[in-house]
Amino acid sequence: MKTRSPLPRRVASLVAAGALILGLAAGPAHARSSALSDPLLDATARDTWSSLVAMTDERTGLTADGIAGDLGHGSRSGYTSTTNVGGYLWSTIAARDLGIITPGEASERLAATLGTLETMPRHAASGMFWNWYRPVDGQPVIDTNPDGSTKPPFASSVDNAWLAAALRVVVGAEAPLAARATALYDSMDFSVFYDPQAASARGTGLNRNGFWPTSPAECSIPGNFQSGQTETLFYNCSAYDTTVSETRMTTYLGIDKGEVPTSSFYGTLRTMSPGCDADWQEHKPHGVSRTYDGITVFEGTYRYRGMSIVPGWGGSMFEALMPDLFVPEASWGPRSWGLNHPLTVRAQKEHGIDEAGYGFWGFSPASDPFGGYAEYGVDELGIKDDGYHSDRERTNVDKDHADCNTGANPAPTFGDGVVTPHASFLALGYDRAGVLDNLGRLRSQFESYGPGGFYDAVAVRSGTVAKRYLSLDQSMIMGAILNAERGDALKGYFVDERFENAIRPLMQAQIFGSSAEPEAPAFTAPAEGRPLPAGPVDFEGTGEPGAIVSVGGTPEPVAGAGGVKPDSDGSSSAPGGAAAPADALCRAVVAPNGTWACTAADTSGVEEYVALSSRADDGVEARGEPLSLVAVVPTATPTPTPTATPTATPGPTPTATPEPTPTPTPTPTPTPTPSATPTPSVTPVPSPTPSPTITPTPPPTPTSTPTATSTPTATPTPTPTATPTTPPTGTPTAEPTAEPSPDPTATPSPTAPSPTTPTPPDPHDPTAPASAPTGPGPNGPSTPGLVSPWSGSADPLADPSNVHPATEWPHRGRPFLSLTGPSEIVLAVAATLGGLALTVGLLAARRGRRRHGATGD
């Protein structure tokens, strides 16, 4: 039973009853559609409803399967399906809400159809309707086998689901008829279709296509899945096992009614497995396995024009979007349908306009412009290897199935594309402007529109039109326009509290691999902005399973194509045992769970950023965000033996004692950094040993190393350099002169040096000093608690590998204020006197305010 509260239902019943009385008093009438937001939608809604009226038997309220383009009653088909009957029910609600018919006429029409459904023959134990009936009397269609024997009737799971969905809409939209529609809905037991062993390997079951009451000529499996029933039914030998299918409505309803387990929600497949055992499918899928409610699902996708999309069985719009007319899939499943639906629409559009060059788009099963009925779709968006095709010639796209087989037709030329207007209408909620443009051009450039609205299909290169209307396609158009113009009203009528509580949490948990772009790899370790140690570095991250990730370089083609094949330990080697190209620090294959790891033995070439890229087995490349790291400036331990710099320029000999020539220390001059931001130079403290640091422009070679008791003179050069000064004590204090570049995302420290404190030079500044002496500063070993987050050393400042951004250690190596020179003493005295003067002034001002009666200090 429905769970809407009794009070709103009672009020709605009284309101609807009053409307019904008024409507009956006025008599059935066709009201001009209230102005819709677009003239094309307005005209299409009215004319499409006319075609449904022409197809419907006035006495039984059953709608025929189809009718000729002139809407002549004599041309309507002599059979209908339960889906067609359901489509007429929700289309009647749409015609009422769009102002095409009065509420009274809508209620009369709905009542006639419900009355016939209540008396139609069906399977007694399950309450399921047979698939085909005669519109004139509601009796099952009697068909025969080739040998003349009578075929038993067939109960279809998906067709019964669409009828049940329509009954739910009537319950929500037409209160006076809600009880009758609810009784029919409750009488339908969907457990009769659910085979609990159909997906036993995944721990759940699937819905069978349907059953016959007696043994048919077709393949069948005897049994009965309905609880407590002993009657033998004969089930079709196949089950519905794909997620992107109109058949998912059967699962939604079975869960809502409590007739199938919730685990069945996750039992269907996004794609087949990625292995060669399923190389018959259209693509080799990519994805990861996830577990929901104990059910493990491979979240596979197909790659199409840079997008990753969960495909349907055939690649049609109908499979993907018809259930979305009733269930708010995109909003309830933001990480699944909310991603996949817009991508499906985009893919259909790009196929029709760009890839196939038809200039139009929207492909679904429909009437064939050249006679009969045909399944149309985008071949590459379907799991079926020969798919639903988009043209009359049934052009099959057959691309390589990586590692398994070579495609026979990877880049075909398409023929006479067949566009189906109802497919565009289904996309109104995802590309309204594109839909209206597409339909407007279809109408203006072809004879594609008749008295019942858009004809069923158009072959756009030959101009051949299927001048026929199918009731299911017309009812999809009515439902789509209602949702687009009346705020998803069809969804509002369909969903009640019980349904939402049962389905929404399951849908919210789903995570598809759908993406508008190839999945880019990403770093998870090391952390952004950390220093690189001198030894090996472990890199970790995420990416597309099976792809080759390259850290610090470009990915190589996969093995089998003459490229690099990463080893199981994350290293890589080229064919024949040759080493991987030097531009990569390390490579790895992304594991099935979407993670990777590799170790770089040498990071000496890293300066500031580490690149990241990947290549999938189908050759698609993706680049991740680079990792910002801090290159450690190595420092040498003082020794009696001088150490040559990597630039092969001989360094100063520490044992040489020059004759110093006293000269004034020049004022530091701002030197432009590579980013053109002025950075003041700093007065360095002399180093006892030169540091083996590579700089863009080698500094001039000093002629000597000053002693601790003398002040050396800077040698004039074309490039301005800072002149060292004498330290205040007899022992040189190692002062860092080259800070690493801070993390660009870090917030500036409030304790950063003031303008009076010299700023260390940029390590990439060509004019910066070549050496970077280090040593314990005033915050060294005697200060407890200063432990580097990346090192266990008791003295992080004494360890030359622990180079931290200035924002973390703003006063490293220097006291906050060191009164060691006359100028600094003068500054301190001046600051003190200024503070006293400011205090006296504030007190005087306060007395003045009080004297004049001011308040609110």
Quick structural summary:
This protein is α+β, with helices and mostly antiparallel strands.
Explain this structure to me?
This protein is α+β, with helices and mostly antiparallel strands and 857 residues long. Helices cover 25% and strands 13% of the residues. The protein contains 16 helices and 34 strands. It has a 4-stranded antiparallel beta sheet. A 4-stranded antiparallel beta sheet has the order 27-24-30-31, with no helix packed on it. Strand 17 (449-450) and strand 18 form a beta hairpin. Helix 3 (82-97) runs antiparallel to helix 4 (103-119), helix 3 (82-97) runs parallel beside helix 13 and helix 5 (157-173) crosses helix 7.
Can you count the beta strands? 34
Enumerate the spans where pLDDT stays under 50 for 5 or more consecutive residues. 1-33, 558-581, 643-821, 849-857
The end-to-end span amounts to: 71 Å
What structural class results from the helix and strand content? alpha+beta
Q: What is the percent of helical residues?
A: 25-40%
- What strand line-up does the widest sheet have? 4-7-9-8
Mean pLDDT: 77
Major sheet: 4 strands, antiparallel
Give me the Rg, rounded. 39 Å
Number of helices: 16
Shape: globular
What fraction of residues sit in β-strands?
5-15%
